[in-house]
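Below is a complete specimen:
___
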Amino acid sequence: MKNITIKILLIVSIVLFNACNEDFLVETPKDSIFADNLFQTRDGFNQGLYSIYSLIRQERSELGTSMELSVIWKAGTDAYWGNYTFAALRAFDVYGANLNPSDNVLDLAFNWLFDIVNSSNMIISRAESIDVDWQGGNETEDLRNKNEILAHARLFRAWAYRHLTNSWGDVPLSLEEINGNNFRLDWQRTDVNTIRVEMEKDLLFAEANLPDNYGDPLILSKVVAQHYLAELYLTMGDDVNAEKMAERVVDNPNFALITSRFGSNASKPGVPFMDQFHPENALPSQGNTETLWTFLNAPDLPGTGNLAMRRTWVNRYYNLTSDDDWAFSQYGGRGIGRTAHTLYVENLYEDTDDRYSEFALSKYYLKSLGGDTVFTKTPSFSAWKTSDAYWPGTKKWDYFPDLERVNEASQYNSMPYLRLAETYLLLAEAEMKLGKMDEAADHINDLRERSHASLIAEGDVDVELILDERARELLSEEHRRYTLNRFGLLVSRTSQHNKFTQISDKNILFPLPQNYIDSNEGIIPQNPN
């Protein structure tokens, strides 16, 4: 008993001694990564940015569904429809009573975007610590390194709010790291115009502190911020600043439209337009001057993204072939064809347009090596039906995997995410709104000329032409909902051109996820109807 008493007293005295020592209360984990030990150097902050980048890349992954996530901003419009549709896609394709606040994909997307906001806020907040080693060697370089980190984080935050505001309108505005001191359960909706002012501030900071070019693909160029500023200003009705920002991108000498063959596929039959989408041509170092933002990816590496563009947009041609493994290796891997372009888009192209050539769209398949040719086809509007294996699909996302990967659902190549061609179309839109029809026609013709489409005259420029040219150029890339809503035409054009969609004004914005409403204190108003 005496020995036990001595031991207890010894333990108590140690605890009391350490209780008076503040260092005893400070945890210093050495074998795990936490915010406190990660955000101490520039290298640590870069690791944090790479993690956010991995989150952003999930836009083109399945993320719990059998399609690329960003289909929710493409299908159910004038340009795209659900060919091989299923429950998760049908809500965003047919609408009707299917799209409701309890939709799982909406809840997933909402939380995913706020994960990006919260992660960006953590980096922005932690960067203000005076103890960070910015590894610059002097005060000037330290400040440059710090601002470059902040520029990326603020760009990512604005990028997430671009999706959030265009999808749901008024959403919670969060600009600080959430921690134990400011955690709250009363997140109310913030007016979308207030959020857009903050987005503008973030993007202007990014423009001022990112480099002109991105020789290192892990460091984004300021043209990404300028592109999104141009789009934001168009959305806000500020056409003058939209034109100014788009011109800065178009005039940047480090970027140019692809007008001649290049890269690993240049010696084979093809067209310049499609070379930029080849899996080995995604980076500036590979000759790609048109892509403003490349989603980096590779197989069998930590952080690899299981991208689903091929799975979503490549049709189920294996229903037309007899040798699946051979066909998969020849035609870009196994596709599911969840989404396809509408008959409206199919009929937009001239026969001479490279974007409509056999190199850009699947015009035929061979049943097997040396076998019969099966041609794709699009029926008339009245005969148009779902589950159509013959419907042509874009070849932008063909992957050509190793033979052992031909049956895998995902693809692992780097790919263009944001292209200069879209900036040209934003610039043409701003010029049209400012009455500069000749300049708008010139910039549209730059795209049409490189694809061997006939040139337009300034008298041809109007809203319909802009929307048509975006559909032709940005097939499967564009967040079409956002474009149509910017023009106030989502409901009318979709009703006109998409046979299967039951759309009305209540579908202009998505319903707020019920989980967000239920998890907060007080009453949060839902979007109309």
